[in-house]
Write a structure and sequence with these properties.
Number of helices: 14
Distance between the termini: 40 Å
Mean pLDDT: 91
Shape: globular
Bound molecules: adenosine monophosphate, glycine
Radius of gyration: 22 Å
Oligomer: single chain
Helix content: 25-40%
Largest sheet: 6 strands, antiparallel
Structural class: alpha+beta
CATH topology of the largest domain: D-amino Acid Aminotransferase, Chain A, domain 1
Amino acid sequence: MKVLVVGSGGREHALCWKLAQSPLAPELLCAPGNPGTARLARNVPVQANDVPGLVDLARREKPDLVVVGPEDPLVAGLADKLRTHGIAVFGPGAKGARLEGSKVFAKEVLERHRIPCAQDRVFDRSGTAKSYLENCTQWPQVIKADGLAGGKGVVICHDPKSACQAVDMIMEQKALGSAGTKIVVEEFLQGEEASVLAITDGETILILEPVQDHKQVGEGDTGPNTGGMGVYSPVASLNRRLQRQIEQHVLVPTLHALRHEEIEFRGMLFVGLMMTDNGPRVLEYNVRFGDPECQALVRRMKSDLLPILLATAKGELSKIEPPEWDERVCVGVVAAAEGYPGTVRKGDAIEGLDAAEAHEDVVVFHAGTSSDKSGRVLTSGGRVLCVSALGADLNAARERAYAGYDEVRYAGKFCRRDIGTRHQSKPGTEPEERPHRRPARDPRAAEAMRARIERRIKAAGKPPAPGSAEPGPTAAE
Ligand code: AMP
Ligand code: GLY
């Protein structure tokens, strides 16, 4: 069994780390990988956005599975090209990846299929957008660049002046390049944010354990957005009731929508949501594992990930048992480089990695690292490492993660010290309420769960009407 992982971040190190533990003992390749993946896989110097180079590599190496980490190659059609050569791929084709690659397309799909989301207007001219904003009576308004913008494409504006400046920045000064040719102007939603990651082959959906990142660079959720400064799983506040709402009102309707749009989707559906008083509303779709969400999920997944990814790629997810999860909590602290999320300092030697991993249940995932000729590991990106730890509860996991983090040394290192403190347990949302503590050890219960989800997807002729906070009875209940 040979598996090629595409990408070079913490997510791809985490995927290699988990796949390397598979009893199927796969031969792992990573393109291009990083010094962390080099210890587990054969790194091949083909960049993740070099679609022709990756297709050549796959044709040469003939992997049994390609797992695509980042969104750019998916949006560029890597999965379609590999599939035309008969290669199994975890990751959607270009059509499905447009859910992440174009906010305008995502909103069209959401609205066409009545999946709950914010009201919006789309503009392809800055003048029309600005006159609309100058006449808006409700503030704030959210302005989103249509295309991929590396997490910098969303601006929340509190008045017409700043909104018009944002439009100029995106559409006139082209600060985000072609990503800003069109914009979406959206109503501002209030509530608690949540993410749901679900693996799907278009027929069956496997919802993963709740996991949450911390997007902003500063403690107490301050400062600019980043790719994610840390992560924790499970998320006590995302209780069973809310998860069922999301499943019924968002995930199942999204699968319906994909079918109606004739989009074959085999990969990850990662949905960003606002839990409003009127129920969940979709903020965005991503079509790949989150980073650093992936790091926490692989630390907690007890089952073998490889058969799940392989079955998804082959459209056979219904044959797979839901995974078993470690009951413990995972906290991942991102060690960043000075300047992040702006221009960062690079090339500093990193020390203390072994000392960090000597702490109980600590694993350090590489992200923005490189190695020099003498084998020293150097900083080479904004998010340098993710120090992950398991613990009996959030506090124990946090303590271990920060103890590991404190062992790591490089000039310009910084982190957020409040990872995992946002959603402490609330009354009534204790672990036994979580649905994904699934009885996977009991095959009958696992079968019932899967059948229930499949029936929902297959039975419902039409997605449930958006807007009602409480889901009604479902096919099997
Ligand atoms: P997105 O890339 O669409 O998820 O947006 C990035 C961040 O902007 C989200 O994580 C939210 O914090 C915020 N955001 C996006 N859309 C809205 C909205 N309609 N209302 C309030 N906040 C939003
Ligand atoms: N951590 C957020 C993302 O991967 O999109």
